[in-house]
């Protein structure tokens, strides 16, 4: 898109300021090819605020961080997800991880999973479905789901999805875990209370202090590391390792790898890693 056809004046200098602010807050690297994406995502904010240019928006953001910063981060954060995305991870969880946990944690009968970068909730709800279907009665399931974006967290906690978003879930699972809407909500479904009760949604910036103190049996951090530089990836993976039980699992995205990073994990295959028991 040529600059003279844009609704708002937008320059490379504006983009550089905005991506620097984003990086300083979130650690996410914003490449040059996100220039147009930043414009399209933030133009709505300029209209709403009655601003005439991105230069004005940069100034407004700098001078009014308490009012605008969350809106800015929500706008430029990418949230692409789906139910049972990369299904081989859920199959491995049920076929390998759960049998191990049934032996390892027979005394406490509790499984704890963290979905880091949970977006609109499809991943943690998929985890809850898979685990509730495989854990015996009497076992407690606790899933922590975190994200930087407060808007997607609100949608996730509500648990309402359009029918096309759950089209890939089998009919049996739909009946067991979702309530179908009626009337004006006929094209929507809602996660049943039993499933929602297993998931706790919280806002979290991975670059800041983490309040969690207990250890997890597995961490899903998929399609998150891809946005960071090598040093930041190493730092995050080290922090994940400290929060995992010995022998705990880290699941990352299909386009990600811990290759060439010095970590406490051994590769299992299919972007699954296990914390060393040594």
TrEMBL record:
Function: Methylation of the membrane-bound methyl-accepting chemotaxis proteins (MCP) to form gamma-glutamyl methyl ester residues in MCP.
Database matches in Pfam families: CheR (PF01739), CheR_N (PF03705)
Keywords for the protein's UniProt record, in alphabetical order: Methyltransferase, S-adenosyl-L-methionine, Transferase
Domain of life: Bacteria
Record domain CheR-type methyltransferase: where: 3-278
The protein's name in its UniProt record: Chemotaxis protein methyltransferase
Listed PROSITE patterns: CHER
Broadest EC class assigned to this enzyme: transferase
InterPro entries in UniProt: Bact_Chemotaxis_MeTrfase, Chemotaxis_MeTrfase_CheR, CheR_C, CheR_MeTrfase, CheR_N, CheR_N_sf, SAM-dependent_MTases_sf
CDD domains assigned: AdoMet_MTases (cd02440)
Catalytic reaction annotation: L-glutamyl-[protein] + S-adenosyl-L-methionine = [protein]-L-glutamate 5-O-methyl ester + S-adenosyl-L-homocysteine
Taxonomic lineage from the root: Bacteria, Pseudomonadati, Pseudomonadota, Gammaproteobacteria, Methylococcales
Record EC number: 2.1.1.80
């Amino acid at each position: 898109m040529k600059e003279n056809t844009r609704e708002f004046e937008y320059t490379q200098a504006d983009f550089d300021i905005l991506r620097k602010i984003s990086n300083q807050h979130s650690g996410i690297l914003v490449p040059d090819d996100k220039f147009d994406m930043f414009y399209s995502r933030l133009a709505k904010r300029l209209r709403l605020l009655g601003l005439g240019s991105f230069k004005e928006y940069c100034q407004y953001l700098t001078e009014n961080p308490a009012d605008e910063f969350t809106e800015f981060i929500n706008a430029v954060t990418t949230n692409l997800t789906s139910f049972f995305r990369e299904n081989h991870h859920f199959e491995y969880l049920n076929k390998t991880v759960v049998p191990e946990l049934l032996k390892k944690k027979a005394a406490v009968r509790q499984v704890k999973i963290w979905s880091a970068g949970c977006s609109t909730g499809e991943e943690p709800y998929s985890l809850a479905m898979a685990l509730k279907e495989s854990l015996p009665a009497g076992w407690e399931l606790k899933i922590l789901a975190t994200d930087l974006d407060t808007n997607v967290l609100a949608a996730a906690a509500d648990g309402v999805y359009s029918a096309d978003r759950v089209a890939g879930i089998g009919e049996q699972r739909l009946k067991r875990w979702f309530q179908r809407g009626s009337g004006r909500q006929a094209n929507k479904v809602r996660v049943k209370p039993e499933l929602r009760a297993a998931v706790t949604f919280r806002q979290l910036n991975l670059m800041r202090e983490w309040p969690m103190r207990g250890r997890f049996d597995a961490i899903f951090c998929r399609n998150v590391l891809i946005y960071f530089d090598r040093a930041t990836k190493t730092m995050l993976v080290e922090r994940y390792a400290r929060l995992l039980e010995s022998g705990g699992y880290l699941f990352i995205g299909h386009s990600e790898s811990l290759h060439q990073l010095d970590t406490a994990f051994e590769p299992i295959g299919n972007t699954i890693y296990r914390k060393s028991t040594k």
